[in-house]
DNA sequence: TATGAATGAGGGTTCATTCAT
DNA sequence: GATGAATGAACCCTCATTCAT
C-alpha cells in the first residue's frame, strides 16, 4: 500500500484533514511555521496570513492557538503511525524493518510533507499538559513498532544496547537532523542518511 | 586536572562568571529556567525573581534578555570545551576518548552544574543571528574534539559511518536525554547511560 | 378582561409578537438572557443558540443586536401598559388602583412571562439614544397611569409626598426586587410583597 | 466627627486609598466611568486615559480590570459604612436615625465624592462570584445599621412593614435616584429629596 | 430564510525595556 | 547598583456583522 493510498484512507476516516480543505491547509502551514520559528514565536496573525485569512477567522476552525498545535501533532502522529506500520509490514527481516523505520522517520522529519514531525518533537513543551496526555496515548502505538523491532534485533544478538534506550537515542538523533540536514544542497540523500544511521549502529549496508 | 580546578582557572581568566557572584548566580538560574520552561516562556521577571531582584535591575547587568541567553551559551561552551579537552587528554585510546566525550556531554546535559548545555542545544533558534555567529566560532573548537576522535576510530576501522554525521546524530541523541533521563528515579546511572550509548554504536563495555 | 385576552388583542394588532412565532420566541429568550446576564454580556451567539439557530440567521430578523433590545423594550412596554390600564380600570378606589399597579409591576418584573420589565429598567443605558427617545414616548402613557393614581391619593390626603418623586422611588424599589426576591424559595408571595410595599407607604392591608 | 476626618482616618489605616495618590485617583475615575458608561462599556484604555497613563501601566496597580471594580466597591463600602455609622450615632431618635441614613445614602449615590455607590449597586453583576463573597461580608456591617434602625421603628409602631423588605425597597429606591435626580437643574435639594423619601413612608418632616 | 465561513475592529493582558529617584 | 512605576508594542482572543451559497 503506497503512501498516497494510506493518506487517502486516513482522510476518508476523518483521522487526518484533507490538505486541500481549509483546515488541512492551515495545519500544513502551521506545521511549517512552528518548525521554522517555533510555536511561541509564531503569532496567530502569522498563521492566518499564511493561509490568506484574517486572524479572527482562525478561531472558526480552532478554539485556541494551542488547539492548532495539538491538531498538528495528533494528525502527524496518526499519519506517521500508518506509514511506519506499512513500512514495517513490508520489510522481511528485523534489520530491514529497522532500516524502514529509520528511513520513514527521516522522511517524516525532513520530507516535504512531514515538517510536522519536527513540531511533535521540538514543541512538545508548548503543549498543555492535558493535551500531552491525549497525544501520548497515540504515541504509544507508534513507539511500540520501534520497540518490537529493536527487541527482535536484540534477541537475534544484533543489538547490544537496551531497546528502550536505543529508541530514545534514535528519537533525538533522527529528529535533530532537521536542524542540519539539507539535501537540496547536494550531498547526502535520504537513503544515504539512512545508511549512515544504520552504519553508526554497526549495521553495514546490505547485511 | 579535576573539574573544580578547570572551573577556577576559567573564572580567574574571566572566561566564566564566578557562580557566587551576582552575574554568575543569574546565569545559573537563567540556564535552569531556560531549560525548564524555554527561553520564550521565561520572562525577565522570572529571571529577576529567581535571584531576588526586581526586573528593572537586571538591565544593569545585561542590556537585553537575549544577551543573557548568549552569555549562558558562551560560558557553557567555554566550560564544556575545557572539560571535554581534559577528558580527551586523559583517555589513552580512541574508544576511551569517545567514551569520555559521551560521558562528559551526558553529564553536561543532565548534571547539576551543567543544565546550560541543554539550553545551548534547544534554544539555539532563539539566539539572534549575529549572536549565533559568535557562538558558532566557539563551538567549532568544541566540535573538533569530537570529530578528531571519531575520525581516529574511523581510520582504525571501528566506526563505519561518516564522523561528521555521527557527531550530529550524537548531538541529537545525547541532548535529547534531557527530556527523558531521570537518574533520581533509580535505574540507569550516568555511567550506565554512557555504556548504553557506546553499546548502541557497537562498542561493548570494556573493549 | 383577563391577561391572555389582552395579549391576544395586542398580537392581532401587531403591537406585540406572537410568542409562538420565530420573532416572539427570540424576544422572549432575549429578555431572559438580558435580564440574567445583562445586554453587554449576552452575545448574539447566545441569543441564536437560545432559539436554536445560527448567529448569522439572527440578522434576517433584526438588523442589529441593539434592535433586539429595543424590540424587547417596546413590546414589553406595550404589553405592560395594557395590563396596567386593565388593572387600574378594574380597581374602584385610588388605594386599590395603587395596589393593583404595584402588584402588576411586581409581576412584570418577577413573573414568568414578564422578565422583560427588568431589562427595560436595568439595560436602559445600553439603548442607543435615538431609540431611547422612541421608547420614552411609549413610556409616558405608562407613567401617566401611575401619576394619575398617585395624584388622586395625594388629593385625598393619603399620600404626603410628591407623586412624581414617589413614582420614581417606586420604580427603583420595585425593579430592584428582581435582584433579591426569590418566591420559589418559599416565603413571601407576590401578594405578600405587594402588601409589604403598601405597608411601607403607610397603607395597611385592606384599608 | 466630620466627613473629612473620617476619610482621613480610613486613609491612614490603609482602608481607603488616598485620592491624591495614583491608586486613589484611578479608583475615583474608574468609579465615575463605571457609573456613567457601565463596567462592560468602559475599556481599560478609557480608564488609563482618564488618569493620563498607558493602558499597560494600569496593570502595575491592579492585576485585572475586575480587580479595579472590586477595589472601587470595597473602598466605597468602607467609606460609607463609616459615614453611616457616624450619621446614626449623631441622631437621637429612631426616626432621625432613619432620616440620617436616607440622607447619607442619597449623598453617597448622588454626591460629588460618592459616585462609587452607584457602581456598587448597579455593577454588582459584573463582579466575579468570588469577589462578591468578599464584598458581601463588608456589606453586612453596613446593612446592619439599616436593619437595626428599621427594627426599632417597627417596635415603636411607626413602621408597618418588615424591616428586611423595607431596606431592600429603599436600596432600590435610593440607588435609582442616580438615574433621574439632577440637583444642578434647580428644584429639589438633597434635603428636600430626603424629606420626600420620609414622607413617602408616612413620616412627615419634623415629626 | 438559513447557514457558516469570514471579517476587522477592538477587547483585556503581557512583557522587555526605560528612567527618575 | 537597585528600585518600581511607566511605557508601548504586541499578544491571543471575542464578537457584531456580512455575504456567498
TrEMBL record, chains A, B, C, D:
This is TetR family transcriptional regulator. InterPro entries: DNA-bd_HTH_TetR-type_CS, Homeodomain-like_sf, HTH-type_TetR-like_transc_reg, HTH_TetR, KstR2_TetR_C, Tet_transcr_reg_TetR-rel_C_sf. Pfam families: TetR_C_24, TetR_N. PROSITE patterns: HTH_TETR_1, HTH_TETR_2. SUPFAM superfamilies: Homeodomain-like (SSF46689), Tetracyclin repressor-like, C-terminal domain (SSF48498). It comes from Marinobacter similis. PANTHER family: HTH-TYPE TRANSCRIPTIONAL REGULATOR RUTR, NUCLEOID OCCLUSION FACTOR SLMA. Residues 43-62 bind DNA.
Amino acid at each position: 500500500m503506497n503512501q498516497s493510498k494510506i493518506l487517502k484512507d486516513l482522510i476518508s476516516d476523518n483521522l487526518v484533514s484533507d490538505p486541500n480543505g481549509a483546515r488541512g491547509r492551515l495545519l500544513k502551514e502551521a506545521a511549517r511555521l512552528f518548525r521554522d520559528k517555533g510555536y511561541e514565536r509564531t503569532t496567530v496573525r502569522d498563521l492566518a496570513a499564511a493561509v490568506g485569512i484574517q486572524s479572527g477567522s482562525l478561531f472558526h476552525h480552532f478554539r485556541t492557538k494551542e488547539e492548532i498545535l495539538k491538531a498538528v501533532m495528533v494528525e502527524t502522529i496518526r499519519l506517521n503511525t500508518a506509514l511506519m506500520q506499512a513500512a514495517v509490514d513490508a520489510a522481511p527481516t528485523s534489520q530491514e524493518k529497522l532500516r524502514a523505520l529509520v528511513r520513514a522517520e527521516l522522511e517524516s522529519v525532513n520530507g516535504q510533507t512531514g515538517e510536522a514531525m519536527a513540531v511533535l518533537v521540538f514543541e512538545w513543551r508548548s503543549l498543555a499538559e492535558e493535551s500531552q496526555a491525549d497525544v501520548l496515548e497515540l504515541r504509544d502505538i507508534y513507539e511500540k513498532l520501534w520497540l518490537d523491532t529493536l527487541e527482535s534485533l536484540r534477541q537475534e544478538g544484533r543489538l547490544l544496547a537496551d531497546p528502550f534506550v536505543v529508541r530514545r537515542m534514535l528519537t533525538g538523533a533522527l529528529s535533530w537532523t532537521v536542524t542540519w540536514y539539507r539535501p537540496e544542497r547536494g550531498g547526502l540523500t535520504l537513503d544515504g542518511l539512512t545508511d549512515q544511521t544504520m552504519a553508526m549502529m554497526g549495521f553495514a549496508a546490505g547485511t
